Known about the structure:
The structure holds 2 protein chains of 2 kinds. Chain A is α/β, with parallel strands linked by helices.
Amino acid sequence: xxxxxxxxxxxxxxxxxxxxxxxxxxxxxxxxxxxxxxxxxxxxxxxxxxxxxxxxxxxxxxxxxxxxxxxxxxxxxxxxxxxxxxxxxxxxxxxxxxxxxxxxxxxxxxxxxxxxxxxxxxxxx
Amino acid sequence: xxxxxxxxxxxxxxxxxxxxxxxxxxxxxxxxxxxxxxxxxxxxxxxxxxxxxxxxxxxxxxxxxxxxxxxxxxxxxxxxxxxxxxxxxxxxxxxxxxxxxxxxxxxxxxxxxxxxxxxxxxxxxxxxxxxxxxxxxxxxxxxxxxxxxxxxxxxxxxxxxxxxxxxxxxxxxxxxxxxxxxxxxxxxxxxxxxxxxxxxxxxxxxxxxxxxxxxxxxxxxxxxxxxxxxxxxxxxxxxxxxxxxxxxxxxxxxxxxxxxxxxxxxxxxxxxxxxxxxxxxxxxxxxxxxxxxx
Lengths: 125, 294
């Protein structure tokens, strides 16, 4: 059976490590990046089932990441979850308008992200 | 290094008899460092700065470096009125955060479309180069500029200038994460603790600067009804400056509803709070036309 895959893009290494451990424990193939630029390159290379992406990052912020992923023909349908401590409605609306499927405010529980991914029928095992 | 305040008001220009002392023009601060002209934000104060630069550089070519914190009205509205940009021997380097759906250049061009303004960006005779700020530090000769994102409903950058051993931090339109996560997102104590960790990053960024130009839009009494609008209550501004050990604090981005009397009162409240903490930093409410030499 094909293993599900998730790409985690966040400049907070503690969050990246925490999510990596959690999703690997749940049988996912996990890829990670600590900046948006690397994250987009990895997404194009690995074509994960889901992307979890922060907003505040140097070089390329999360809004740019969404745009680039959605503009890529093979990634247009990837499940995209934005995670951020920016809890403002305009930021959430902007993320949705650019193509994010979900916006989760930090701090979050890993189980909440797993639930969102498992609710996506295309990714469910 | 010389710092001149050309616009100290937040949100909307507010001229009138009640704002004579601190000014009614929106955000614009000039920093002269290492022989370069750096400008922070293009609020309506930029118009007066432009006229002063024309007088100074009458027959000489002019290059300015304009750093935009974010593209809300009160930070870009003066740009179409920056008269040096209509001279062919002027070069304007504009820096800002990468856009969110629209590039920085498109946003600046957009406010000069004919629905809003009679003259287009392309009619400016100057060379206008727009740079998206991606990697810090950024250097202009011997002047170093670092940037950090602030918590605000936009991609909003703080800029820290270092030149000849002096540092100025321009950090306006900031609301503590601890406040928004606890109250706006409704995450209670867990949100406050997580947010405080993120707020610490700004304390580190501000550590020991000679001048901290800081958001001080609301009194503590006003703040609860303005939660989630992206600005600081006065006590949070003072906390940040004292924790960071800054040498002087300029209260900035005055609320348009605040009269000179209220701003002066906030200045005194901040000074009292600083003294109560046993700190020695100097604190003043920034006034239009004020020059600070570091």
